[in-house]
Amino acid sequence: MYILYDIGGTNMRLAALKDLQTFGEAVHIKTPQNFDEAMKQFSQTALKLADGEKIFGVAGGVPGALNHDKNSLYHSPNLTGWDGKPFQKVLSHALGGAKIFMENDTDMIGLGEAAFGAGKGRNIVVYMTVSTGVGGSRIVNGKIDPAFWGQEPGQQIIDPSDRLYDPGTLENYVSGGGVERIYGKPAYEITDAAVWDELAKWLAYGLHNSIVHWSPEIIILGGSMMTKQPGISLDAVRGHLRKIMKIFPELPELTLVGLGDEGGFYGSMQYLQVKRDAGEIA
């Protein structure tokens, strides 16, 4: 028996995985800001999902930067009460010695899209989410690309003049949170097509940087700013990228997510499959 999880600042979801091939229906829980209470609810839910079976491995994504050993959150903007707390140790003890694996949530979604979704069959995949914030990950040959501190393409500077916001990062210019700060209203209330085209252009600048740094075969875009309407047009982003890109003869494929809200679970399943094949879990 294995357990998958997807933790957000508001909710966390857990699902049972028996055969490393298909997972069951997710259980949703409000995410406690208090770490001890969160671990209590997590472990109780996991044991209930296991229904008496031994849990060999637990894997999932968390919203924030991890420490180098990947056993606790270094910093999570929405779960500050979890920072530095022994996530891996506490859960392993509560779940009978199960192996606990944690990764950044964006990395897990990217892994899921690369293995089972829009990037299936591609060797180098970039996943970018444009939602309340902006995050991204690079998946190479079915594995999360190693990084010393993690991958944060949303923090790249795309406007050193800071004309719209200081600092002029991709996240501050195209995320839902950034758009609301700049324009004074939620993104879903903006109906001016010129604004949305401007957002597509800023996003194209950021994607251009990711392309020349990471050289992917495909870029998969997700998050509410891309998948909901009104939203940033994929065609508009592609058009701006064609004008900007000079160094490479062609652009990587640009597409939207294929797994909806389940990308993190699929990524966690792939992660456990790799760990089992490497002999790290039973």
TrEMBL record:
Pfam families membership:
ROK
Signal peptide span per the entry? Answer: none
Recorded hits in CDD domains, A to Z, give: ASKHA_ATPase_ROK
Which family does the similarity line name?
A: Belongs to the ROK (NagC/XylR) family.
The name on file for this protein is ROK family protein
